[in-house]
Amino acid sequence: MQITTKIIPLAGAVAFAMAGTAWAQETVVKIGHVAPISGPIAHLGKDNENGARMAIDELNSKGVTIGGKKVKFELLAEDDASDPKQGTAAAQKLVDAKVNGVIGHLNSGTTIPASKIYHDAGIPQISPSATNPKYTQQGFKTAFRVVANDGQLGGTLGRYAADQLKAKKVAVIDDRTAYGQGVADEFTKGAKAKGVQIVAQQYTNDKATDFNAILTNIKSKNPDVVFFGGMDAVAGPMLRQMKQLGINAKFMGGDGICTEGLAKLAGDAIGGEGNVVCAEAGGVVEAQKKGMDDFRAAYKKKFNGDVQLYAPYVYDAVMVMAEAMKKANSADPAKYLPELAKISYTGVTGPITFDSKGDIKNGTLTLYTYKGGKREQIAVVK
Fold first, then answer.
1. Is the pLDDT of residue 14 over 50?
2. CB contact set of 343 (below 8 Å; sequence gap of 6+)
3. pTM for this structure?
């Protein structure tokens, strides 16, 4: 019995030591992700999170080595409910958890205040969907985005309203968020530069459901186009109420409304082809179409649902961050940040390189309309 009692602890110690060695050879890399998983645009937030999970799972299945050690990527997902205060709380939580990098946030209104927290902690942040120009105009070397900004998106839509829709009079509504106001302002600049008259400027909020007062005012101005700066959860009911009031104007918006789900939210108020025109702050040219189609098919198989909007950009953002770590041979933010700044990577959404501010170079836009209740591409533009 004495011999046995001596052997068991020794065997246990050896097993523990071996396990400890194996554990020591595997480095855990924590990637934070923040999006609204609750609230009116939770469907878009979950879509973003799913894109991150796809990338993390793929990296782990491939077996990535950084600095001579096998790496296990872990996703730390947080919900900011599209609320700036909750967004900064989520950012601080990720900083306290010592994440190696952050993908997010979804909204400009949460991304911008959170970006200072990541900057002060020296943690790289890539937003897959925040389009307000202010995000990368703060001088934070940690801030990047993989989509075009509102200056490009709103301006393109403003010019499209004049050149293609032949609009003479336009009414503009925004939801007073950083995103909604930003894209509406840029649309207004683009439209005015083309000689379009802005006959009404109205405001709502990102949780509103009743628009009768502002729409009645707009109806009296008889606009050719109504532009809305905001998200699909508000745009859908707004379209329904426009139809009820007999407003026959075309409806335009940015990437926030440009979702597969808008037709469901708007019902028959979505109208026929060309009634609604929107732009996604990204776009895949024909040469990259197969990669995006493959991604959509893989997403559907994994999550039993269609891509809503920005999941492919989230996926690419994670992959770009991992690629920078590999190039630096380190997951230490201070060491891989310089590699991230000069990265050249081809993702499912196209080529990704950043300018000195952290904006994507040569960002593309995709213009869409809705036909038979389905989103249909009009064109990819730069």
1. no
2. 320, 323, 324, 327, 352, 353, 354
3. 0.84
